[in-house]
Amino acid sequence: MTRGFAVKRFLFASFLALVPSALAVAQGDNPPLPGFDVAGSDPKAVQIADEVMKALGGRKAWDETRYLTWNFFGRRTHVWDKHAGDLRFENEGSVVLMNLNTKKGRVWKSGQELTSAAELEKALYDAESAWINDSYWVFMPYKLKDSGVTLKYLGKGKTEAGASADVLELTFDAVGRTPQNKYHVFVDDQSRLVTQWNYYQNASDPEPSFKIPWLDWERHGRILLSANRGERKHQDVAVLDSVPESAFRSPAAVDLRPHFR
Predict the structure, then answer these.
(1) Within its chain, how far is the Cα of 143 from the centroid?
(2) pLDDT score of 199
(3) Does residue 205 belong to any structural domain of this protein?
(4) DSSP strand E in 111-214: where?
(5) I need a labelling partner for 137 at 20 to 30 A (CA). Which of 5, 76, 143, 245 fits?
């Protein structure tokens, strides 16, 4: 957890995990990922999570969305094949090409490929950590029923902007790199989209470390994404029709804009 403009490093679970058919039927169109705390979660909170997914475009649209890209607050760029697990990560002159499932990949710094096994392992770990954090800042509303998550309904509240919302509490059990974190997520009464999150570094903290808005939801392909976090904005957030094969195979620069949806 970095201080100041805080960063979350939570395990980003697989979106394609198989769900037992009986559970899928019980949960309708938005079944939880295996390991979601169904028993410990409030039915009202689970219902609202399903309403959020529907407002975002629906679970089917999210699962079928394959290629995504974004620049995390102008600092580092990700190109992600959500189905295959391939990642292209660019940061301060470094290019990382790796697979998030196998944890294997290649790294170039200032145009030179890393050959030291220790340096390569660290660079791949750091890239995955950045992706875990940065992806949560863009895709969290799609992950309300992830593995290890417990959802509680805290009742009605108001965002810092004064809008009425249902407030969900997210806590985590034995998952990720910072399972002690807690979030309060504000779901707008009308749109059913997330409009604010409050971050608690420790679930026992009486006050949040920060309160950040989620603004300017826009359609990308078949889903909605928000890039505006108030004081800062993600850049080049997009769903891609396709990705040149070289994006995951070569450190050479690649122009993705013709593929934006």
Answers:
(1) 7
(2) 97
(3) yes
(4) 112-113, 149-158, 164-172, 182-188, 194-200, 210-213
(5) 245
Q: Is residue 221 part of a domain?
A: yes
* DSSP-assigned letter for residue 241: S
What phi-psi label fits residue 213: left (phi over 0), alpha (psi between -120 and 50 degrees) or beta? Answer: beta
Condensed to tens digits (0 to 9), the pLDDT of residues 168-204 reads 999 998 665 566 789 999 999 999 999 999 999 999 9
What is the structure's pLDDT at 261? 85
- The single-letter code of the amino acid at 212 is I
**Alpha carbons 194 and 160: distance in angstroms, whole number:** 13
Q: Are 89 and 100 in contact (CB under 8 A)?
A: no
| 6-10, 222-226, 251-255: the lowest-pLDDT one | 6-10
The one-letter amino acid code at 176 reads G
How far is 214 from 234, CA to CA, in rounded Å? 11
Listed in sequence order, the residues at least 6 apart from 178 whose beta carbon sits closer than 8 Å to its beta carbon are 1, 8, 9, 10
Q: Helices in the chain by DSSP H: which ranges?
A: 21-26, 43-56, 59-64, 117-139
Query: What are the tens digits of pLDDT across the range 89-145?
Result: 999 999 999 999 999 999 999 999 999 999 999 999 999 999 999 999 999 999 999
Domain count, the chain: 1
Tell me whether residue 216 is in a domain: yes
Question: What pLDDT is attached to residue 179?
Answer: 67
> Can you tell me the mean pLDDT for 1-19?
36
Assigned domain for 10 exists: no
Tokens for 4, please give them. 């100041």
